[in-house]
Design the sequence.
């Protein structure tokens, strides 16, 4: 009888064959250096995208969303663990949840802010929330939205309601990794938590907020205990805490941001540390790791494509776009 891991043989082989078509650094830089937007967009046809050379910014967004949905739907069907795509859909559910809860508090319509990339389409989530049909939503999401609504009503502080939803999102991520029973996936969630906590620490310290506030922001489940992160008070302590971890470089840049430097290089280093972890899947012949890494690669690719194409349409200089690009999986 085949093991669960061996059930991934076919889909893993398919994805390995597709990896050379992913957007890589060389193609991304060619897009930035292309003479025109049209020339930049045509490079993407080699990566399996439709021709977007005559598209508006809105049309680019629609085509990217359709491309993403097609790949995620396909891999949800083909993967032995159907939930793997949820690992990347969760963040859109919780983005929508934040927009909906805050819009209700100020009596505005959040529809233009909502995404259909989550497990629950944005308009449907909005309808179910207003009608309080909690049983038709994923249980953790439903509970978190109710709690976030109550926190915002009591405190009038949208940051605190966001914290409720952030913690619930990571709770779901950890539970998903446990259900799939993958050490690689658990490690991925752990580095996501570490990255999120490091970003929170730097932003909180830059704002001059208290240790109690930082403790409220931090999420459990990283390789570095949240209490140790909350105890950090300066750039030297920050660098020391993350030494010999995947986020060592990012912590040094975070210290520079605390000393008055910019945030762009720091946040990019945090995201690149997560990407470096994902690349470990290249050393694994087959299994859920191949699917997770490919889904993450598609997410990163679409983010880069969006940044380049919309930047080119808006007339943003190539170097300004280049310094914000994250490393790509390919």
Sequence:
């Amino acid at each position: 009888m085949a093991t669960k891991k061996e059930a991934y043989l076919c889909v893993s082989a398919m994805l390995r064959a597709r990896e050379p078509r992913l957007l890589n650094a060389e193609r991304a830089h060619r897009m930035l250096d292309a003479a025109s937007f049209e020339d930049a967009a045509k490079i993407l046809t080699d990566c399996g995208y439709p021709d977007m050379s005559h598209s508006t910014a809105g049309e680019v967004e629609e085509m990217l969303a359709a491309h993403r949905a097609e790949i995620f739907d396909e891999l949800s069907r083909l993967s032995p663990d159907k939930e793997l795509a949820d690992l990347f859909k969760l963040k859109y559910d919780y983005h929508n949840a934040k927009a909906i809860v805050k819009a209700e508090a100020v009596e505005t319509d959040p529809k233009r802010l909502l995404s259909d990339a989550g497990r629950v389409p944005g308009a449907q989530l909005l309808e179910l929330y207003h009608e309080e049909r909690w049983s038709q939503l994923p249980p953790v999401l439903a509970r978190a939205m109710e709690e976030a609504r109550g926190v915002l009503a009591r405190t009038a502080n949208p940051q605190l309601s966001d914290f409720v939803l952030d913690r619930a999102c990571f709770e779901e991520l950890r539970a998903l990794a446990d259900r799939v029973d993958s050490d690689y996936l658990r490690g991925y969630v752990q580095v996501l938590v570490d990255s999120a906590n490091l970003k929170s620490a730097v932003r909180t310290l830059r704002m001059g907020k208290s240790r109690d506030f930082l403790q409220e922001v931090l999420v459990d489940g990283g390789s570095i205990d949240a209490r140790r992160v909350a105890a950090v008070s300066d750039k030297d302590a920050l660098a020391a805490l993350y030494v010999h971890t995947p986020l060592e470089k990012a912590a040094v840049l975070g210290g520079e941001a605390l000393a008055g430097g910019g945030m762009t290089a720091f946040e990019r280093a945090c995201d690149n540390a997560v990407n470096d972890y994902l690349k470990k899947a290249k050393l694994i012949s087959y299994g859920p790791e191949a699917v997770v890494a490919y889904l993450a690669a598609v997410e990163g690719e679409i983010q880069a494509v969006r940044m380049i194409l919309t930047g080119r349409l808006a007339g943003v200089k190539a170097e300004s776009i280049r310094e914000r690009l994250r490393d790509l999986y390919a």
User: Anything to note?
Assistant: The mean pLDDT is 93. The longest helix spans residues 288-314. Residues 93 and 120 are 7 Å apart (CA to CA). The radius of gyration is 20 Å.
